[in-house]
Amino acid sequence: MREYTSCMSDITPEQRRALRAKAHHLRPVVAVGAHGLTPAVVHEIDVALKAHELIKIRVFSDVRAERDALLAQICGELNCAPVQHLGKLLIVWRHNPALHAKRRETASPHAAAHRRVIAKSARSRIAPPAGMPRAPSRRRRVHSEPAPGFATTHDQSRRRRRTH
């Protein structure tokens, strides 16, 4: 495995594995084109890292050594950790404590308990405690008349009757 020198403390293999799993469904948010790593591209990567912590970067270079050097340069300049270099995709991560503090502030202390009660009531079909909304339930479509050509008896069969 290639070694990257970075100002940020190295992440453990377990953290890297978890970050790769999180990044699997992400789409690239920044693209590095023919002009390489310009100050504008560095700024956009920095903005994306501040907003998301974990991002994918698409590089339009066919030379793997250039992409490796680009990843090392990005990690050196922006104090982020390399997670994965997969083909023309680079995945980088930088911890943002302000992002986690913001999430904690917006969530009320009872929000998690409220979500658990709602989920439990949806699973078990019990009524939630007073003051909590009921989870949305699926409603079955009720047909007043069976479709033509279907059995009209009470055998619950959906097989078509043969008409001669």
H/I helix tally: 5
What's the CATH architecture name of the largest domain?
2-Layer Sandwich
What's the N-to-C terminus distance?
A: 73 Å
Lateral strand order in the biggest sheet: 1-2-4-3
Strand count: 4
Structural class: alpha+beta
The CATH class of the largest domain turns out to be: Alpha Beta
CATH topology of the largest domain: Translation Initiation Factor IF3
Strand content is: 5-15%
Most strands sheet: 4 strands, mixed
User: Shape from CA axes?
Assistant: elongated
Q: Mean pLDDT, as a whole number? A: 77
How would you explain this protein's 3D organization?
This protein is 39% helix and 12% strand. The chain is an alpha+beta fold and 164 residues long. It has two domains: 13-95, YhbY-like (Translation Initiation Factor IF3); 97-128, no CATH class. A four-stranded mixed sheet has the order 1-2-4-3, sandwiched between helices. The longest helix has 15 residues, at 64-78. The termini are far apart. Mean pLDDT is 77; it is low at 1-7.
What characteristics describe this protein?
Translation Initiation Factor IF3, 164 residues, 2 domains, alpha+beta
Summarize the structure.
The chain is α+β, with helices and mostly antiparallel strands and 164 residues long. The protein has helices spanning 13-23, 39-52, 64-78, 97-106, 111-124, and strands at 30-32, 54-59, 81-86, 89-93.
Mind sketching the topology for me?
Blueprint: H1 13-23, E1 30-32, H2 39-52, E2 54-59, H3 64-78, E3 81-86, E4 89-93, H4 97-106, H5 111-124
Parallel strand pairs: 1-2
Antiparallel strand pairs: 2-4, 3-4
